[in-house]
């Protein structure tokens, strides 16, 4: 089959790499325009673009596909001229109007990092961890005009471990997504089978995974250790949980673990101990969390032994 692939970050690049190993022809790759990145703020190609160029695949980077502008109409015509059988979309970052969804012979398929209809939207991996879900997965769906509303064709299951961060879960789901889309597109007959047996999403079960904000990553000691630990894992690697030291400076918290201890008399946010496990802090309901990787402004993340050596925190201090 002739496939158009549309995606931008590493999650999408993993799926593209899997499709490149098949007999299908990737006729074009669509990805977001190059963005400034890193300390030097140099224009940087997306992970998907870099992989496409390495494999000599034509790359298209339209700003949008809106029918209301000449640029959008030109992008639509360009895509139509590729005469693709199917378009695979994974974390692309552009809204595709119905005319684009209808252009390929079999339409557009999306690789979504959740068990739809739970966690439609921008941050499904992070919200699943923060909410304490026991499992998540990947859904391959036939795209519709709404936000992640398309009919479901194929699902995989991924348990969420107590140690999972958004970074580790992202990598697991990227691999599952790559395997899933390759299975659906194994042959034209398999694609037709999954299209014929697709399932409509139950709107009553819909939960939205709203976009993350930096502000919500500030640790609130008035909630219990279980929820704080979930938040720290959910916000790793972005925006990273933090403790506000003063108006200008934040102490970033990369890793934590829940303590078996309790401190019913302690004030929320009070440092109870600093040892080789980390910084033990009192939370709501007498619960205790151990912060095991901290990063001061302008420095690298420190492990518990290094935190001890810095002597920047003291027992009894209120964070």
What does it look like?
This protein has 319 residues and is α/β, with parallel strands linked by helices. The protein contains nine helices and 16 strands. α1 packs parallel to α2 and α1 packs parallel to α6. It is elongated. The N and C termini lie far apart (58 Å).
What share of residues is helical? 25-40%
Strands of the widest sheet, in order across it, are 5-2-1-6-7-9-10
Count of runs of 4 or more consecutive helical residues: 9
Work out the radius of gyration. 23 Å
Counting DSSP E segments of at least 2 residues, the number of strands comes to: 16
Major sheet, described briefly?
A: 7 strands, mixed
Indicate the low-confidence ranges by residue numbers: none
Cα shape = elongated
What structural category arises from helix and sheet content?
alpha/beta
Listing every helix as H and every strand as E from the N terminus to the C terminus, the arrangement reads EHEEEHEHEHEEHEEHHEHEEEEEH
Question: What separation lies between the terminal Cα atoms?
Answer: 58 Å
Content of β-strand: 25-35%
What's the overall average pLDDT, rounded? 96
